[in-house]
Amino acid sequence: MSDTPKPNNPISRFLSDEQDPGAAAQVFEKVSQLLTAGEEIAYIAVEKPLVSLSPDSVVLTNKRFIVYQPKLFGRVEFEDYIWRDLHSAELVEGVINSRFLVQTTAGLPLTVENLPKVQARKIYAFAQQMEEFVREERRVREMEEKRAAAGGINIGAAGAAAAASQAAMQPRPRPRKTRSRFWASSSRCSIRA
């Protein structure tokens, strides 16, 4: 029996770069259960260490990057960050395998060792693309915040502002000079000792 998936298998598109089919299938199954609404897996990379029964994996989605770390007795640890938290990504190629390093905006380092070079390059390219996208998103958000802080025009409040300015232009009626009953009645007060 062959380990290669059938063409209609959903993980077949993640096995183009020397990924272990069994490990990729297990990662796909577990991570698919954690995806949020609208989130899709874009790439799965599987470590190829010299000695390991359960290699770590990197899963890239359209919303975050996830490190899948299987432990003893079927336990699994997931470490994930949304792309907005990405500060930098590095790729270090060795003779046989590569190391992928990510640093978050909070300064937390995340490293995955022993990735096949082809998979590591794809992860790095995807991370660079997402880093550029997030950098542009931050730039636009900062511009909008600066514009709002500078007192820019708020379109939603334009109708209220126009009504207030029209009311300010209307002539105000002059107050009439009449005595109120309060003054008339209060003048009659007397204090007895």
What's a quick, concise take on this entry?
The protein is of the alpha+beta class. It has helices at residues 21-32, 117-149, 158-169, 181-186; strands at 41-46, 57-61, 64-70, 76-82, 86-93, 97-104, 109-116. The chain has a 4-stranded antiparallel sheet with strand order 1-2-3-4, sandwiched between helices. A 3-stranded antiparallel sheet has the order 5-6-7, covered by helices on one side.
List the topology elements:
Layout: H1 21-32, E1 41-46, E2 57-61, E3 64-70, E4 76-82, E5 86-93, E6 97-104, E7 109-116, H2 117-149, H3 158-169, H4 181-186
Antiparallel strand pairs: 1-2, 2-3, 3-4, 5-6, 6-7
Radius of gyration: 33 Å
Work out the helix count: 4
Contiguous low-pLDDT stretches (5 residues minimum) are 180-191
Question: What is the annotated CATH architecture?
Answer: Roll
Characterize the main sheet. Answer: 4 strands, antiparallel
Strand content: 25-35%
State the separation between the terminal residues, measured CA to CA: 115 Å
Instruction: Please tell me the total number of domains.
Output: 1
Q: Order of strands side by side in the largest beta sheet?
A: 1-2-3-4
What would CATH call the homologous superfamily?
A: Pleckstrin-homology domain (PH domain)/Phosphotyrosine-binding domain (PTB)
Arithmetic mean of pLDDT: 80
Q: Could you state the order of secondary-structure elements as H and E?
A: HEEEEEEEHHH
